[in-house]
Every structure is written in C-alpha cells, then in structure tokens.
Amino acid sequence: MPAQQKKIIFCIAGVLSFACALGTAAAIGTQLWVKGTILCKTGALLVNATGQELEKFIGEIQYGLFYGERVRQCGLGGRPFQFSFFPDLLKIIPASIHVSVILFCTVLIIFALVGAGFFMFNAFGNPYETLHGPVGLYLWSFIACSCGCLIMILFSSEVKIHHLSEKIANFKEGSFTFKTHSEQFANSFWIILVCSLVHFLNALLIRFAGFEFPFSKSKDSGTTTGAVDLMY
C-alpha cells in the first residue's frame, strides 16, 4: 500500500481513538448509565393495587458511576431524591466492582489518548523505537478494547447480579420496600460499547494498512520492506 494511503488510515484511526477518549470522559460524568422504574411493593400490597392502580406506585430511577436520582412513588405523588455513590452508597453497593469500573474507565481514556497520539506520530513522524511502530499500535488498541469489555462486564454484573437498582431504591427506606420494575442500560453504557468496537476496528485498520498481526508468522520473511516504507 502506498505511504500516503497508510498516513490517511493512521489519521482516521487516530481521530477515532481521540473521539473515544472524549466520549468515555463524557460518559463517566453523566448519570445516564442505567434508567429504570421501581415499584413501591409495600404500598401496592397495602391497597392491593392492580392494573392501572399500580402506576401510582411506580417511580423512576437513573444513575451513573458517581451520582443519580430516583423518584419515589407510594401513592402520594412523586418524591425526588438525589444521591451520590461516594460516600452515601458506599456501604450498600459492591464497592470493589464499582471502583474497578471507574478505574478501567480511566485506563480506557489514557490508552485511547496514547493510541491517538501514536497513530498520529506514525502517520507524520519517524518512529525511533519498535514499540512506536505497528506492534505498539496493536498493543494500545488491544488494551483499550479490553478495558471497554471489562467495563461492560463488571458494570453489567453489578447491575444485574448484585441488583444495584434495588439497593439504591431501598437506600434509607425503613418501612417501605421497593422492587425493580424495569431497567435498561442508557446512552453512556452504550458509548463504552461503541468505543470498544472502534478500538477493534482500529486494529483491523492497522492490518488493512499492510502490517501483520503480532505473533503471526510471515509467509515470506523477505517481504518486510512494506512496513519500512512509512514506519522507518
């Protein structure tokens, strides 16, 4: 592949990596990770509510990694309540998983920026170490993609397996019991999925530019000059 086309591919990959870093940073600061509804089970049982009557006992909840909001419905209208994970909910949530999600989000941002920098560096500069070459680009893309996958797995387990929404809904509730009526992942969660796919796409772009995957055996050891055209 001509050197000019390789530069264009690396520029595209660099822009995508930078956009993923910005998207992840924006997602961390929002409360749009999970949206759902919560049922005031105690209130509904007291009046034996059924059908449309249940709507008076169904509130809303949404939250992110640091804060959120719930609307408490127990037949007397909505009562909004804002909360933060640190330090309010630290004792009732799986803190180790939650902190790990935040940590991997930070690592994802860092390596997305590192990847963007090295993509641009390889497009316009002259790398002086092997790690700055195609092997390094594969490495940054792989780490960023892996972090995105770990974020989704850990956060999904926190929400679904550890019933995070119910724990939040029942926070500081003495006589009333709330149960998750419905919940779904919101925009910020899907941004992480898109970022993971983008970093996987970047690895394919590197391969499309003519550089073999790491640890793959070349059929002809003499045909290695293609990598030298741009990188060295």
Automatic annotation (TrEMBL):
GO cellular component: membrane
Subcellular location as annotated: Membrane
Keywords, sorted A to Z: Membrane, Transmembrane, Transmembrane helix
BP GO annotations: equilibrioception; sensory perception of sound
Transmembrane segments: 97-123, 135-155, 189-209
Family affiliation: Belongs to the clarin family.
Source superkingdom: Eukaryota
Principal location class: membrane
Name recorded for this polypeptide: CLRN1 protein
PROSITE patterns named in the record: PROKAR_LIPOPROTEIN (PS51257)
GN (gene name): Clrn1
Membrane topology according to the record: Multi-pass membrane protein
Secretion signal, residue range per the UniProt entry: none
